[in-house]
């Protein structure tokens, strides 16, 4: 499964189909999640938080943006284990001054400084 997801990503990039390709198919989970149950729990948490379905990625618009909830330490661990689909993710602080949070953003989403 892991190799299949990475191959889907490379194929989508090579063929210019980033906006229409879903990397993680139904019944699969992104490699950075330990199980399908963990991934489904994250999807459910997005729904319970009142945001509805997860926000789509800017770089792969058919894919949910699970990187937004990642943390720098976890990203480094996933990179070491070769389980990170999006190593280009940058972490930025966002939100109002009283409610700032660190979020993972693709370079296309990250505001320039």
Please give a structural write-up.
This protein has 113 residues and is of the alpha+beta class. The protein has one domain. A two-stranded antiparallel sheet has the order 1-2. A hairpin with a 6-residue loop joins strand 1 and strand 2. The mean pLDDT is 86.
| Residue share in β-strands | 5-15%
The overall average pLDDT, rounded, is 86
Shape: globular
Radius of gyration: 14 Å
Q: State the helix count.
A: 3
Cα end-to-end separation:
37 Å
Name the helicity range: 25-40%
Give the strand order of the largest sheet, numbering strands 1, 2, ... along the chain. 1-2
Count of separate structural domains:
1
Strands, total number: 2
User: Major β-sheet, in short?
Assistant: 2 strands, antiparallel
Low-confidence stretches: none
Q: Structural class from helices and strands?
A: alpha+beta
Write down the secondary-structure element order. HHHEE
Pick out its properties:
9% strand; 3 helices; alpha+beta; globular
Topology, element by element:
Elements: H1 2-15, H2 36-48, H3 72-80, E1 90-94, E2 101-105
Antiparallel strand pairs: 1-2
Write a short abstract of this structure:
With 113 residues, the protein is an alpha+beta fold.
